[in-house]
Design goal:
- The protein is α+β, with helices and mostly antiparallel strands.
- It has one domain.
- It contains 4 helices and 3 strands, in the order H-E-H-H-E-E-H.
- Strand 2 and strand 3 form a beta hairpin.
- The model has no long low-confidence stretch (mean pLDDT 87).
Length: 92
């Protein structure tokens, strides 16, 4: 099995589109803590766990995945402090 196939097997099923980002908050000169406290995009409830939210704030590392499972209208998003935790969290 190729590395692409292995990686694809870890991702949620999606019908429209999916994106994975790392540290987007740095592009607007904010910390993870600021983004979480603002709550306009990054919310505590969207983290894969409370522990991952705290770890992301402590390390200022933020991985995000957003996917559209059925249509280009409704989407899911999840956050974690590492890519590994993110991929494990979306498949729990």
């Amino acid at each position: 099995m190729s590395i692409v196939d292995q990686f694809s097997a870890l991702l949620p099923k999606y019908a429209c589109s999916m994106s994975i980002t790392h540290n987007d908050h740095l592009g607007v000169y904010e910390t993870v803590a600021q983004q979480v406290s603002d709550g306009s995009w990054v919310t505590r409830s969207d983290f894969v766990s409370d522990a991952e939210c705290e770890r992301a704030i402590e390390t200022n590392e933020l991985w995000a995945i957003q996917w559209y499972p059925d249509t280009p209208v409704g989407f899911y998003k999840r956050f974690a402090s590492t890519l590994e935790a993110l991929l494990e969290g979306i498949n729990d």
